[in-house]
Design goal:
It contains four helices and no strands. With 84 residues, the chain is mainly alpha-helical. The radius of gyration is 20 Å and the shape is elongated.
Length: 84
Amino acid sequence: MSAFIDIIAHLPNWVQWLLQGISIFGLMATGAVVATRAGRNPYWGIAAILPYIAIVVFWAFAFSRWPAVDGPEEQEKETKAEPV
């Protein structure tokens, strides 16, 4: 691991910024895909780069309903109450 850090530390500054930008873009893109699959706005992907907020947001997405995955049938079954 130390050799990897030494290699990264000796790169030019523009390469370090480029690697950081690619990492941030990857996090935001992953967050946007998760939000879209959950039926939310893809702009929620921005929350993926905020350290403590990302944990809370992804936890909430994990336990919320996903209309894009569940389908409209599941949504209708949950909203309609059956008479007793």
